[in-house]
Amino acid sequence: MKRRKAGLLSMLMSRQRKSLVLLAVISLALGAAITGQAALLAKAVQRIFVEGASLSSVTTVVLGLLSVMASRSLLVYGNGMIGLNMAAAAKTEMRSRLLRGLTRSSMPVSLGGQTGGKVSVALDAVDEAEHYFSQYLPRMMEASVIPLLVLGVVFYQHMNSGLIMLVTAPFIPLFMILVGLSTRKKSEEKFDQLAAFSGTFLDSLQGLVTLKLFGRSRQQEKEIERSSLAYRDATMGILRIAFINTFALESIVMLSIGIVALELALQLVVFKTLSFYTAFLILLLVPEFYNLLKNTGTAFHGGRTSMGAIRTVEELLENTAGAGTFSITPSDQDSSERRSEDQDTVDKSRPKGEYESKTSDLGPLPPSMELENLRFRYEQSGFELHTGTAGIKIKPGQHVAIVGASGSGKTTLLHLLSGLLKPDSGTITVNGRELGELDEAAWFRHVGYITQHPYIFAGTFADNIVIGAGHYVSKEDIIKAAEAAGLGGLTEELEQSYDTVVGEGGRGLSGGEKQRLALARAFLKRPAVLLFDEPTVGLDLHTERILQRSITELSRGVTMITVAHRLYTIRQADIIFFMEKGVLVDTGTHEELLDRLPQYAEMVDVQRKGGWS
Amino acid sequence: MKELAIFTKAMIRERRDILLSILGGFAAGLAGVGLFAASGYLIAQTVFAPPLYTLIMLTSLVKILGLVRAASRYGERLFSHRATFSLLGRLRTAFFSKLVPLTPGILNRTRSGELLARIVGDVESLQFYFLRVAYPPVMVVMVFLATMLFTAAFSIWAALLLLAGMLMAAFGVPALVMIGQRRVHGAVKRKRAAFSTDVTEMLFGFRDLKLYGRLNQREEELQQVSADLAASQRDDALRLLRGQALHTFLTFIISWGMLVLGAYLIVNGSLSGVFLAMLVMVSNTVFEEAAPMATLPAYKQDSEYAAKRLTDTVLSAEKQQPELPANRRSIDDEAVSVSFDEVCFQYDDEWRPALQDISLHLPAGSKTAIVGPSGSGKTSLFELLLKLRKPNRGEIRLNDIPLQELEEEHVWSKCNTVLQHGHFFRGTIRDNLLTEQTCFEDEELSFVLDQVQLKDKKLNDHVLEKGENLSDGEKQRLALARAVLHGGRLWLLDEPTSSLDYITERKVLRYVLDQAAGDTLLLISHRLAGLEHMDRIIVIEQGRIVESGTYEELVALKGYFYELKEIELQMFEASNK
Question: Which parts of the sequence belong to the ABC transporter domain (chain B) (predicted)?
């Protein structure tokens, strides 16, 4: 944890040490090429024009110039290529860490609701970070090596010009940075406004049906025009500042070059202390010098944006790191620490193989469970769950129904009991052993979870069922499970039966079919602990019937915990957990709660009313 | 170039800004060339020890040219960006008005959202067509021609050398850059999209993947996709880099060529030595002006691809557009009867029909509820009635007139519709209630708002894009108010109160039913309770009508509806508190 403070960026940089050295070497060579090119060009002109030499006598100079030019082009390309390679490596590394973090994270991170935001970090923020490696680093390296070299040459040739350059040079990056900061602030201020303007077009297209139904499309066209113009004017406001500043900057450069040129001319003509060669060489080098400095300014902006993006990535990494229920034992931590010496610390959890030391023996199945004084808080929403100080026992094979109004924390409690969420404090024990001390894979091997919205992966129908097994299953087993879950009819409809691709990009399934597919998975797995999130939304009758029948069969002889929405489920439960605003208010049988808990009685009664006419 | 027709039209309308930016760019380019020419000449002149005033004049000229260059560059940037953003606006409005008549047809698939996002993206990528594709060649040619004229005054050969260089820069370098580009075109976009969907899927399926121990395997697959993406992005960037490096090399070669040529001409006696430095510097500068040419082809391909996709979308939608029959008929201002005759409908991208053999007759003035599990085809029924989609088979009639013989606008004017995701647009509550045909006094509008239990909303209250600042319940009530004010005689309400608590729901629906007295009403209901007073209940499952009748009939039947009702009764928390 401590080492993470060192930062993602420095970690990424330490991976690039070799490339950085290479960049420095190439930059040095590039500097040599730039000065060499200027020197040879000046030399050639001096020989031909001033000394009136014949063409053949300058052959070496001219050919040398050509080769220097060719190598300069190559060196530019080389630096760019190193930058791009570094960017590609850094991006892959960042994405790899994000993926590792996300897949190893606990539930609140993955179900934090902002899936889109996380994907956007992994995609857009990482892409934005590219600039730092592909542009900022190479330019900065060039800017810290080449101008010094150029300046050195100028100083050697003609002290005065060198002094002028030395004095004027710092103004350029300084000015550019100041300019950048002010425009940046301005653009940040206007950012929301800009986003709103540019969103109008998509919104209008999405709402086109309604707009047409109510005859509003003509007006909306004007609205699009209005918002586009407003967008243009807002953007131009920002750009105008940027352009004015560029204008000022170019003037500074121009002025500086002018001063150098004037000084050179005076030296040449009035004082006659300077050779044509030296003057021309300096005149060729001066623009190169200022251009390089100008590039640093540009690179600096890009670099800043990229660093912001890298911080975004870093934040997500920190949020995802190390929140899983199944922590690793101290000895494991040591070994992984050693191994990840230069890999940073973001992922503490390692592949399954390293859990050896944890107990994979759960004890007798179905297990008993016990929860005591559980507390859990979602960082983002601030929602807090508490189960009360009294220990609550679930005996082997008992059926629990969690009830409560929507938003009372039922699903959160189920996630805690499943081990998908880690409590902030308090304990859950399974057969007397703490849940966190169990081997994750061994525990999940015996847990079945039927959610309201089962996830269908892009793959064949059979693959989607087999995922439940965790071991080899024969085709017959799959068919048996599917038929038990009432999917026989559907497989006949599918053109390639069990080999039909479903999910994203494949055949779409209805809500009821997905629910039945989840049942088929459970039939293959036959878990000892069954977690069930009872559907609230309208399923088709066929699925409803199958669901009741299947749950009865699957729950026989297993410990079952249900987030219950149906009265019969609640009535049949051995214990009912009643939740209210995140607090486990009371537990007991249906009759007990009816007796002593007015909120419960009211809730049971509410559904008998309803209707609007 | 047919695809870019819309774009060209938009450019013509922005000609002022475009001309100004060309003017600015031209001036900046010439000033740049002049600046370096002057300084080259200046330095050469010093060799002959000229009088001081010549020097002062020359250095002043250099400075003035420098300032002119910076100033005209400023103008060029300002006007070209202004033009770019104006063009974007024009493109948006142009495409919007093109899409308006095509709308129902173009959306005949379930994932219409993706299509719309793509259209927006394509229009956006077209905006840079001017800045990066259309503009640079004009500028480069103009500056080059001027420079060549200038150079020709000293030596025709030097001018020809520049011409050769320009041809290389315009065609040779881009051609080299484009090698291999066609094969991988769009690879980055595709891989980005793939990565995005895969990560999203992983996050959505996280719980199941974790429970089934598949996360590691999934992660490995994703790592592979990510590495692929980074490699593709690098390759694309390398291609651009190659272009830039080649262009730099070309610049050097031409300057070198100028030096050698100059040297030869000087030795020959056909060129004065004092111009040598000037010519070399001129050729160096003029090629710097041409730098955007190297990256132009890639942008060009992008824009043309976008333009082609846009035209294809629009064209294919135009083809699907149903032709209206010569004899257009209309419904009088009376309650409407609705009948479906063996109607079948299937979405373009679905494998099962959404509706199958639907036959029903709803007499004028009847009130019908439609119930069924989610995804059973209830909403599709409304979409067909509204002519938003076309049935694959069968016929729908309003007042015995086939739907094909009725104009869309006419049908819509007769329907008071509440869709599940109704759209609200930026403006006031009043703007959102009024339509082009209707006009109401403020008191009337406020009264309706009261009746739909939106007493706390004022007519001048602002509504943000998509009604972002309204809750789901408020949106539903506002949508109902809009429907009430629309004044048609056929009511199509798709789960209009699913986000309301049950007391408000009762009040609102009673008001709506009062308003609809004597009209035909179809209500897709998310619940079965409270349907006792409807004339008829239709139960749909998997696109078929499984039961229909009055509430009493269906309950007595003890069939599908009865069982669904039993399940709903068992629901513990189905109705909100």
Answer: 338-567
Predicted confidence (pLDDT) at residue B576 exceeds the cutoff of 70: no
How close, in Å, is residue B327 to chain A by CA atoms?
23
Contact list in A for residue B510 (CB cut-off 8 A) is 612-613
Q: What is the mean pLDDT of residues B203-212?
A: 78
**HSE of A445 in the Cβ direction (CA atoms, 13 Å)?**
12
Provide CB contacts within 8 A for B332, sequence distance 6+: B399
DSSP per-residue codes, A526-538: --SEEEEE---S-
- The nearest CA of chain B is from the CA of A548 a distance in Å of 11
> B338-576, what's its fold?
Rossmann fold (3.40.50)
Cβ atoms B297, B375 nearer than 8 A: no
Q: What average pLDDT is seen over chain B?
A: 82
Under CATH, which architecture does the B2-316 domain have? Up-down Bundle (1.20)
Over 60: is that where the pLDDT of A414 sits?
A: yes
Residues of B in contact with A224 (CB under 8 A): 89, 92-93, 96
> In angstroms, rounded to a whole number, what is the distance separating the alpha carbons of residues B91 and B128?
12
Q: How many CB pairs under 8 A join A and B?
A: 449
| Residues of chain A positioned with their CB less than 8 A from the CB of B422 | 210
Burial (CB < 10 A; 0-12, 13-18, 19+), residue B146, is middle
pTM of the model: 0.76
Question: Could you give the CA distance from residue B244 to residue A215 in angstroms, rounded to a whole number?
Answer: 52
* CA atoms of B290 and B251, how far apart (whole Å): 9
**Cβ B234–A217 below 8 Å, yes or no?**
no
Tens of pLDDT, residue by residue over A352-389, are 343 445 667 777 778 888 888 888 887 766 778 888 77
Nearest to A385 by CA among A347, A434, A330, A422: A422
Longest dimension (CA), chain B: 117
Residues of A with Cβ-Cβ distance to B242 under 8 angstroms: 77
Burial A250-260 (b: 16+ CB within 10 A, else e): bbbbbebbbbb
Q: Give me the interface pTM, i.e. the ipTM.
A: 0.77
State whether B408 and A212 contact (CB < 8 Å): yes
Residue appearing with tokens 């047919």: B2
Q: CA–CA separation, B171 vs B165, rounded Å?
A: 10
- The two tokens of residue B217 are 């395997």
Using the Cα atoms of residue B270, residue B273, residue B274 and residue B278 in order, give the sign of their dihedral. Answer: positive
Q: Where are the domains of chain B?
A: 2-316, 338-576
- Give me the residue from A255, A268, A537 closest to B46, CB to CB: A268
- Record: contact A246-B219, CB cut-off 8 A: no
Q: Tell me the Ramachandran region of residue A431: left when phi exceeds 0, alpha when psi lies from -120 to 50, beta otherwise.
A: left
The reply to whether residue B273 touches residue A52, judged by beta carbons under 8 angstroms, is yes
**Residue A361: Cβ-neighbour burial (10 angstroms; 0-12, 13-18, 19+):** exposed
Cβ(A8)–Cβ(A313) below 8 Å: yes
Check pLDDT > 60 for residue A108: no
